[in-house]
Amino acid sequence: MAKIKHTKTELKxxxxxxxxxxxxxxxxxxxxxxxxxxxxxxxxxxxENRRNLxxxxxxxxxxxxLFGEPGAADALREAAAVDDIALDRGNIAGVDIPVFKSxxxxxxxxxxxxxxxxxxxxxxxxxxxxxxRVREDTLRKQRxxxxxxxxxxxxxxxxFEKVKIPETRENIRVIKIFLGDEQTAAxxxxxxxxxxxxxxxxx
Length: 203
What we know:
Blueprint: H1 8-60, H2 72-79, E1 82-92, E2 95-105, H3 119-202
Helix pairs in contact: 1-3, 2-3
């Protein structure tokens, strides 16, 4: 605990500090709740995205053997070539997060005579798989950013609750006791001085 002065000025400063801490603490607690709620939301979205990914992979797996057909793998690679990933920026309780918008694939016109009949369905599923993976990656980045802010906010809440507010209250209590003792001593000294004066006058 830092050394404090036992003065009325210091008492006023400590009271102002306590008011400030008690005003900020509810805002920090609210921010902490919001961040916890957002973590839960992202976790739910990640779980949903993972279910969709598993389903897409299961749907694509029967075609994996067919990818070995001449030219099939190259054609699918071209059909699922990513041209651009569109992300937006969001803000959650003061935290900047990436928000998935879309994946744009390169234009591809398959040769209807050179590609097998299942190619279009497999290409669409592959594109869906890529989109889900990009979405998952974006959600993980969201979670990391929110979790880091939650860690910092939780530390601040703990600092205010467990250190700053109790320390400031104790400082106020100590200063008030000291000032009370000083006032009592001053009254006693005044009475002693008055008694001496009265005795001198009587003599």
